[in-house]
Amino acid sequence: MANTQDTLSITFAALADPTRRAILTRLARGDATVGELGEPFEISAPAISKHLRVLEGAGLIEREVDARWRICRLRAEPMHDAHDWLEAYRRHWEESLDRLVEFVEQTHRADAKKRGNGAPRVPRKKP
Amino acid sequence: MANTQDTLSITFAALADPTRRAILTRLARGDATVGELGEPFEISAPAISKHLRVLEGAGLIEREVDARWRICRLRAEPMHDAHDWLEAYRRHWEESLDRLVEFVEQTHRADAKKRGNGAPRVPRKKP
DNA sequence: CTCTCGATTAACCAAGTGGTTAATTGACGT
DNA sequence: ACGTCAATTAACCACTTGGTTAATCGAGAG
Fold this sequence. Notes:
The structure is a homodimer. Chain A is mainly alpha-helical. Chain A has a domain at 2-76: Arc Repressor Mutant, subunit A, CATH 1.10.10.10. The first copy, chain A, has six helices and three strands. Chain A has helices at residues 7-15, 18-28, 34-38, 45-57, 77-87, 90-113; strands at 32-33, 61-66, 69-74. Chain A starts with 6 loop residues before the first helix and ends in a 14-residue tail after the last helix. Residues 114-127 of chain A have low confidence and may be disordered. At the A-B interface, helix 1, helix 2, helix 5 and helix 6 of A face helix 1, helix 2, helix 5 and helix 6 of B. The structure holds a DNA duplex. Chains A, B: Pfam families: HTH_20.
């Protein structure tokens, strides 16, 4: 409902569609026309047009008109902000990974020392 | 319309709302009850409940029931995948940054040589 | 038992989204 | 001038989303 959407929200929303992400992935390999971009998908040209408008609205692509073709080019800057935002949570997912590694190592050590002990313990959710 | 949404789409969609991002930011400082999470916002309790269900559906939080409170905890793992996906585009935004730096340096050099030239030029979108 | 409190569910609404087909625009080739 | 081709716009549809208010549920307190 917050209609005056902030940039980050618009960026994440644009990225929340697999077709649009595929388009961006394609554009990372080089500029392309709208037709080329739509070719891999089984959806109509207007549907592609709409996706491109969303991407353009998010500043993730820009279009340059060349005769009757529109050349699309990737503009990755907004991803930078999204990446930075996520970066702030890195230690949280690394902590979870640490807990998993710790669990695996403990299990391995237990197996090596005395095989066939009790039930395999599961990492506590909040240790 | 792809209804069987992939994980990345669900993650990005969950992050595409400022209220939900604020909730995650709050949870990064520690677990909290639903009431505590909703307190900063001027929306109803059911609206918060829905946001939390979206976050839970994306695997970004988990809820533990404690008497009549629900304790919410951050689960940052899905952000890891989103972060990785964006990482693939790093060189693109860094290239753009390079172009900007190059422009600034050029401008600076020009200013140093002949001061007080025309209006301050703005970086071209496609130099 | 009853009342309150934290939280969720139910039912509804307005707006947005992702898709369609049909019509339109604009540049090119003949 | 005409037809064609790339792309967009228009109009429509089904479904989702973010919000509301009212009702419900479950655990404690009196």
